[in-house]
C-alpha cells in the first residue's frame, strides 16, 4: 500500500474514529482552518464518523473566498487594459466581483490566462515583451513562496513587463479575529498543515496561550484529519491548550527555512481586507520596498471604487465558523455553483461549495 | 500513407482551399477522398444516397474542438469518429454511415490535416463505418483553432427492446466498461501548460462492439450512456434524472488508473468528473450482472468492466458510498473543473 492509500485505509480511519469516540466525554467545537481540509471532511463524509456533540466548523482557509470583491474588480480592470494580460490560477476566474467574474470579463474582451504556476506568468512576460503580464497573486502563506520566487525571478531577469496584483493573506491574524469575535464558538483549531509546512508553528504559540485553545497542525487525508481531531480532543478533555504537530511528516517546528526567508525577503505583513470578515491587522502580505516596482496597483492607476457585495451572502459568518453553509437561506436555492452569490460557493476550497458538492445524504 | 497533396502546392491551408475553385477541388479529392472514400464519398454528388432495409434508425451529431489536436492515445480525427459511433451505440445501434464537416483555419499545415484525416479514416475502418458525405470551410487565421470537425452518424438499431433511461428499475446494476476519467486527465496533461508530466494516454476508442455483444448475448440492457464531458458523475446524473431513479455507487469498485488518480490529485480535480472517450455505463437487471460482465470482459474495449453500484428509488439522486461506509452526494458538475491554487 502506498503512503496515500495508507492514509485512506478504512481500518486506520475507523480505529482513529473509535479512539475519538472513546476520548470525547463532552461536546466540543473544533474549527478546521483550511478549505482543503473542509473538502476532505465533506468528500469522505468524516463527520459521520464523529460522536454526537463533536462539531467541526469550517474556517476561513480558502484564499479565493477571502479575496475581496474590490480586488477581483481590480483584476478585471487590469485585464481589460490594452497590452495587459492577467495571469491567474483557475479557481479565481469564477469568483464574482461587483461586475461579474473573470470569465465574463474575458468574454467582454479582457485578456485573462489561466496558469498553474506563478513562474509560468514570468515566462509569459519573458517570451513576449510587447505585453505586460500581471499575475493575480492570491493565496495564503502556502502560495506566498511561489509568488515571491516569481517576483525575484522577474527582478533577476530585469523584466519591466511583469507585475503582481498582490492579494496574499496570513492565517494567524484570522485566528485571532475569530477567537476575539463576539459569536465565537471555536474551542480548538486544526491548523492548515501546508501553511505550517512553510511558516512553522511558532506564530501560533502566543494565540494558543492568550486564548487558551489547542492548535493542532493537521494534514489533509482522512487519517490525518482524524489524527488532528483526536489530538485536539485529548487536549480539550485534559484542559490543555498547546500548539501540537499532528502532521509531522510535512511540518517542522520552524517551517521551511528557505521558503520562509524568501517570503520575508520579498514581502512584509500589511493590513488586508478579508472578504466577509473585514479589515485584519497584519492579515496580508505586500511587496517590500525594493520589490515595490512589481506591484500592479502602484504601476497602474486604478480608480478606487466601492465594491457591491451581494446583500444576501453570509460568507463572512460562514468563514468565521459562526454559521454553516446550509444555514444560509440562499444556499442551494439562489446561490449555487452555477450562480454563486459569494466566493465560498465557487472555489474548490470553499465551504459552501464543499457542502453543495458533497452534502450528506439527507442534509 | 504520406500526404498526397503536392507540397509544392500549398504546405498550409489558404483561403482558396475553401473558395470553391480548383484549389479546393484538389484538397477535397487528394486529401479527403483519398483517405476517406469507400464508395459514396467520391461520387461527388450533393448528397449521399444510401439503400437501407427496414427497422429503426438512430441519428446523432457532434462537433469536436479539442486542444491539443494530437494527444497520447488519439487525435481530433479519431475522436470525431469515436464520439459519434459511441453515441449511436448508446441506444443499441450499430453504425452505418458518417458525415464529416471540417472548419479549417487558414495557416493549418496540410501535413497535419492529412495526419488528422488519415487517423479519421483508420478509426472509421476499424469501426466498420463509412464516411459518405462531407463539407469543407476555411476561416481566416485567428478565427478558428486549427481545425474543428463535426460528424453526424447514422446507425441501425439492433436492440430488440428500447434502450432508454426510463426502463431502469430500482435494484438494477450499474456497470462501467473500464477505468474512468483517463481522457480528461490525459488531455489536460498533453496541453502542457500545467507543468505536469505523465505517460497517461486517452482511452479514446469506439466502444460499439461491447454493447452490441451484450445485446447479441441476450443481456437486456436497460440503458447506456457514454461518460464524456462531465465524466462518470454527470453520466449517472443524466441517467438518474431522465430515468426517474437514483444511483448508489460504491467508490471502491469504480475502476481508476492510478495515473489518472495521481494527475487528478495533483491538480485538485475529481476523476469521477473527468471525461472518458472510450467507456460506457450500462444498466442491467441484477440477474444478468454476471453474464453481462463475462461478455464485456471478453471484448477488448471493455476488458476492464466492473459492477460499481445499483439503481435506487431515490429519484434523481446519485450517492457515493466511501470506503469508510460514509455516504455523500455526487451531483452534476457546474461549468468545468478548474485546477486549484494550492
Strand content of chain B: 15-25%
List the secondary-structure elements of chain A in sequence, H or E: HHEHEHHEHEHEHEHEHHEHEHEEHHH
- The overall pLDDT average of chain A reads 92
- Average pLDDT of chain B, rounded to a whole number, is 92
SS field, number of helical segments of chain A: 16
Q: Can you walk me through this structure?
A:
The complex is a heterodimer of chains A (363) and B (342). Chain A is an alpha/beta fold and 363 residues long. Among the domains of chain A are: 26-60 and 172-239, HypD, alpha/beta domain 1 (Rossmann fold); 68-168 and 256-296, Rossmann fold (3-Layer(aba) Sandwich). Chain A has helices spanning 3-6, 10-23, 35-43, 63-66, 69-80, 102-107, 118-127, 144-157, 171-180, 193-199, 205-211, 222-238, 257-266, 296-299, 315-319, 351-358; strands at residues 28-34, 54-61, 84-88, 112-114, 132-139, 162-168, 188-192, 215-218, 243-245, 267-274, 278-287. Chain A is globular and about 65 Å long. The model of chain A has no long low-confidence stretch (mean pLDDT 92). Chain B is of the alpha+beta class and 342 residues long. In chain B, the strands form 3 sheets. Chain B has a 7-stranded mixed β-sheet with strand order 8-10-7-11-9-12-13. In chain B, strands 1-6-4-5 form a 4-stranded mixed β-sheet, covered by helices on one side. A two-stranded antiparallel sheet of chain B has the order 2-3. In chain B, a hairpin with a 5-residue loop joins strand 12 (318-321) and strand 13. Chain B is globular, with a radius of gyration of 21 Å. The A-B interface holds A 4, 8, 10, 13-14, 36, 42-46, 48-49, 63-64, 89-94, 114-117, 120, 138-140, 142-143, 194, 222, 336-338, 347-349, 356-361 and B 193-196, 265, 267-268, 317, 319, 322-329, 331, 334-335, 338-342.
Amino acid at each position: 500500500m502506498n503512503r496515500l492509500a495508507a492514509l485512506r485505509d478504512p481500518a486506520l480511519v475507523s480505529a482513529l474514529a473509535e479512539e475519538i469516540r472513546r476520548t470525547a466525554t463532552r461536546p466540543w467545537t473544533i474549527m478546521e482552518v483550511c478549505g482543503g481540509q473542509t473538502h476532505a471532511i465533506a468528500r469522505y463524509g468524516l463527520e459521520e464518523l464523529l460522536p454526537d456533540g463533536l462539531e467541526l466548523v469550517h474556517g476561513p482557509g480558502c484564499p479565493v473566498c477571502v479575496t475581496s470583491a474590490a480586488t477581483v474588480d481590480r483584476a478585471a480592470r487590469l485585464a481589460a487594459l490594452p497590452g495587459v494580460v492577467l495571469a491567474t490560477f483557475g479557481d479565481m476566474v469564477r469568483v464574482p466581483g461587483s461586475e461579474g467574474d473573470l470569465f465574463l470579463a474575458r468574454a467582454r474582451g479582457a485578456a485573462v490566462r489561466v496558469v498553474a504556476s506563478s513562474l509560468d506568468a514570468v515566462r509569459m512576460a519573458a517570451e513576449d515583451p510587447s505585453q505586460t503580464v500581471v499575475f493575480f497573486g492570491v493565496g495564503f502563506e502556502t502560495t506566498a513562496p511561489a509568488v515571491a520566487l516569481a517576483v525575484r525571478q522577474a527582478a533577476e531577469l530585469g523584466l519591466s513587463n511583469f507585475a503582481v496584483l498582490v492579494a496574499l493573506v496570513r492565517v494567524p491574524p484570522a485566528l485571532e479575529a475569530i477567537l476575539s469575535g463576539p459569536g465565537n464558538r471555536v474551542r480548538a483549531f486544526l491548523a492548515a498543515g501546508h501553511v505550517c509546512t512553510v511558516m512553522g508553528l511558532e506564530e501560533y504559540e502566543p494565540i494558543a496561550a492568550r486564548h487558551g485553545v489547542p492548535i493542532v497542525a493537521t494534514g489533509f487525508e482522512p487519517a490525518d484529519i482524524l489524527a488532528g481531531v483526536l489530538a485536539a480532543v485529548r487536549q480539550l478533555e485534559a484542559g490543555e491548550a498547546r500548539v501540537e504537530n499532528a502532521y509531522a511528516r510535512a511540518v517542522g517546528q520552524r517551517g521551511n527555512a528557505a521558503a520562509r526567508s524568501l517570503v520575508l525577503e520579498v514581502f512584509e505583513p500589511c493590513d488586508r481586507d478579508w472578504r466577509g470578515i473585514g479589515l485584519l491587522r497584519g492579515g496580508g502580505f505586500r511587496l517590500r520596498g525594493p520589490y515595490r516596482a512589481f506591484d500592479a496597483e502602484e504601476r497602474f492607476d486604478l480608480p478606487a471604487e466601492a465594491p457591491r457585495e451581494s446583500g444576501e451572502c453570509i460568507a463572512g459568518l460562514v468563514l468565521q465558523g459562526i454559521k454553516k453553509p446550509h444555514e444560509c437561506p440562499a444556499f442551494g436555492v439562489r446561490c449555487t455553483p452555477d450562480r454563486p452569490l459569494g466566493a465560498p460557493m465557487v472555489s474548490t476550497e470553499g465551504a459552501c461549495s464543499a457542502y453543495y458538492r458533497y452534502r450528506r445524504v439527507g442534509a | 500513407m504520406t500526404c498526397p497533396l503536392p507540397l509544392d502546392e500549398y504546405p498550409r491551408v489558404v483561403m482558396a482551399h475553401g473558395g470553391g475553385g480548383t484549389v479546393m477541388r484538389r484538397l477535397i479529392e487528394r486529401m479527403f477522398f483519398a483517405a476517406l472514400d469507400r464508395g459514396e464519398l467520391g461520387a461527388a454528388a450533393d448528397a449521399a444516397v444510401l439503400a437501407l432495409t427496414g427497422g429503426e434508425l438512430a441519428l446523432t451529431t457532434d462537433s469536436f474542438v479539442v486542444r491539443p489536436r494530437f494527444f497520447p492515445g488519439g487525435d481530433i480525427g479519431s475522436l470525431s469518429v469515436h464520439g459519434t459511433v459511441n453515441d449511436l451505440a448508446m441506444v443499441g445501434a450499430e453504425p452505418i454511415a458518417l458525415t464529416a464537416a471540417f472548419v479549417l483555419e487558414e495557416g493549418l499545415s496540410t501535413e497535419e490535416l492529412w495526419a488528422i484525416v488519415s487517423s479519421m479514416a483508420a478509426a472509421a475502418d476499424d469501426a466498420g463505418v463509412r464516411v459518405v458525405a462531407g463539407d469543407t470551410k476555411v476561416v481566416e487565421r485567428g478565427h478558428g483553432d486549427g481545425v474543428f470537425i463535426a460528424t453526424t452518424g447514422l446507425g441501425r438499431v439492433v436492440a430488440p427492446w428500447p434502450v432508454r433511461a426510463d426502463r431502469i428499475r430500482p435494484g438494477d446494476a450499474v456497470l462501467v466498461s473500464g477505468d474512468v476519467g483517463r481522457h480528461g486527465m490525459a488531455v489536460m496533461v498533453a496541453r502542457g501548460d500545467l507543468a505536469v508530466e505523465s505517460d497517461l494516454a486517452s482511452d479514446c476508442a469506439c466502444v460499439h462492439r461491447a454493447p452490441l455483444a451484450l445485446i447479441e448475448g441476450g443481456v437486456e440492457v436497460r440503458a447506456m450512456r457514454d461518460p464524456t464531458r462531465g465524466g462518470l458523475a454527470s453520466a449517472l446524473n443524466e441517467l438518474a434524472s431522465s430515468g426517474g431513479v437514483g444511483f448508489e455507487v460504491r467508490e471502491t469498485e469504480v475502476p481508476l488508473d492510478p495515473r489518472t488518480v495521481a494527475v487528478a490529485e495533483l491538480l485538485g480535480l475529481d476523476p469521477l468528473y473527468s471525461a472518458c472517450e472510450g467507456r460506457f455505463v450500462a444498466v442491467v437487471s441484477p440477474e444478468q450482472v454476471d453474464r453481462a460482465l463475462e461478455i464485456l470482459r471478453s471484448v477488448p474495449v471493455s476488458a476492464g468492466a466492473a459492477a460499481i453500484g445499483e439503481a435506487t428509488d431515490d429519484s434523481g439522486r446519485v450517492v457515493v458510498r466511501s470506503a469508510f461506509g460514509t455516504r455523500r452526494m455526487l451531483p452534476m458538475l457546474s461549468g468545468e473543473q478548474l485546477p486549484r491554487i494550492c
